[in-house]
Amino acid sequence: MTKKILLITSLLLTAGFILILLLNNNTYDQEKFGINWNNFRKEHNIPPLIDNWSYNNLNALLEYSNSDISSRGHIKKYINLSKSATGSERDVFKVNNYIIVSLYERNDKNRVLYKIDNPKNEIINIFQVEKEVIDSDEANKLLREVGVSFQFNQSWDNHLN
Length: 161
Known about the structure:
Blueprint: H1 2-24, H2 38-43, E1 54-58, E2 61-65, E3 73-80, E4 88-95, E5 98-105, E6 111-117, E7 132-134, H3 136-145
Antiparallel strand pairs: 1-2, 2-3, 3-4, 4-5, 5-6, 6-7
């Protein structure tokens, strides 16, 4: 029952967010931040978009994901197409008993790394759970444990100063 309530709440919040963005029509075209933006991502140490992932187009929010939900490592990328301060990319990594989330905000270039406890390897809504801010060293250590080659550099630690 609790999972149903969380799912319904999540869907309503997402729908409301999309409605606001549609009414403002202040969004980029989805092609702007597709695979062709991976060169920018590489130059700025942002996890790349994987070319064989499937995606859901929720108008102002793109959700790319690995089709193998049991996989570990880089499993999702959310791209918020808003031209406002909410324009961002979130990458989700499944690592043993944790979820690592990276947040890159396009307008002000803020970067933050989060760790979410997930000891039961449940499917969780990353937008509605407690997150612990971590540094790049801790994130990289966890990513190496599951063979992820992408490593965050220290530019992701600026929020800790």
